[in-house]
Amino acid sequence: MDLMRRLPPQNIEINVANLIDLCQDDEEDFDDFTGDLLSSIHQPLIVKVCPETNREYLASDYNRDLDSYRSPWSNKFDPPLQDASYPSDQLRKLEVQANEAFDVYRDLYYGGGLSSVYMWDTENGFAAAVFLKKTNEKNATDKSSWDSIHIFEVENKGRNVLYKLTSTITLYIVSSNKDMGNMNLSGSLTRYTESEFSNQEHIGNLGRMVEGMEFNMRNTLQEIYFGKTRNIVNELRSIASLQDEKKKMLFTKDLMNRLKKN
After folding, report:
1. How many CB atoms lie under 10 A from the CB of residue 125?
2. Given 3-state DSSP classes, what are the helix, strand and coil percentages for the chain, each rounded to the nearest 5?
3. I need a surface site. Which of 4, 38, 125, 138 has the fewest CB within 10 A?
4. Are 16 and 37 in contact (CB under 8 A)?
C-alpha cells in the first residue's frame, strides 16, 4: 500500500497488475493477497454508456457483477446478466433520487463531468457509492483528471441513523511543452468521517456529508500539492532577477537596522 501511494494514480491499473505479477511466486496465500490488494485500492472510474438510455455513467467494482456493470439510469446490467443482485424497490427509488440530486451537485460544483450513485441493501440499513469525475484532455501531453469516490455505510440506530463515510480523491495533471518541459503533478487522498442524524432524510444527509468532505479535502490537496509545489518553484527560480532580489534584501536589512536604532 505504501508503494501504491507513491506511484502515479493515472497508471494504477498497470502498477497493480505488475505488483500482482511480482508477488505471484513469493506469496504463500496469493489469492488472499490479491483480494486484499484489489479491495483496498480504488481503481480509476470507468466511463460507460447505458445501451437503453444512451446516457453515460461511471463504473466501478461497486456496480459490477462478474463482467457486467449496472447502469444507474436503467437499473440493468450490460452485458445482460442472469441471477444478478439488485437493490430493493424502496432503495431503488432512493437511488434514483440520489442520482438526480448529485447530478445537480455535479453541475454546480464541477461545471461538467459525470456523476453516478449506487446503493445496495445491508443487514442494518444500506450502503451507497457516490462517484464524481471530471477530465480535461486537450491532447496526449496535456490532460488532467479528478476522481471522487465516496463510500457510505448507513446503519439504523433506533431513532437515529449513523452514516460512515470513506472518501478518496484521485487527482493528476500532466502537461508538456517547450517552455516548461514535462510536468506530472498527481496524488490521492483518503479520509474517513461519521455522523449521526436524528432524521432519515437520506438524500440531504448524504449530500451535506459529501459537500463538507470534498471542501475539506480540496483545501488539503491545494495546500499539500499546489502550495508546496509553488514554494519549491519559487525557491528554485524567482520571477524577478537575482540582482533585484539582492537589492530588496539589502533594503529590508537596512530598514530593520534603522528601526532598531530608533
Report:
1. 19
2. 40, 35, 25
3. 138
4. yes
What is the C-alpha separation between 131 and 145, in angstroms, rounded? 13
128 forms beta bridges with: 119, 152
Query: 112-167, pLDDT tens digit by residue?
Result: 999 999 999 999 899 999 999 999 887 777 888 899 999 999 999 888 999 999 99
What angle (nearest 5°) sits at the alpha carbon of residue 23, between those of residues 21 and 24?
65
3-state secondary structure of 113: coil
Residue-wise pLDDT tens digits, 207-257? 999 999 999 999 888 887 777 777 777 777 766 677 777 888 888 888 888
Please say whether the dihedral angle defined by the alpha carbons of residues 79, 92, 64 and 129, taken in this order, is positive or negative. positive
117 pairs with which residues across the strands? Answer: 130
Q: How far apart are CA 156 and CA 154, in angstroms?
A: 7
Q: What nine digits make up the cell of 11?
A: 497508471
Is residue 11 predicted with pLDDT exceeding 70? no
For residue 59 the three cell numbers come to 463504473
pLDDT in tens, 82-106: 888 999 999 999 999 999 999 999 9
DSSP 51: T
Nearest to 131 by CA among 71, 52, 220: 71
Q: pLDDT tens digits for 164-218?
A: 999 999 888 888 877 767 777 777 888 999 999 988 899 999 999 999 999 999 9
The residue written with cell numbers 539582492 in the block is 246
Closest CA to 44 of 114, 91, 94: 114
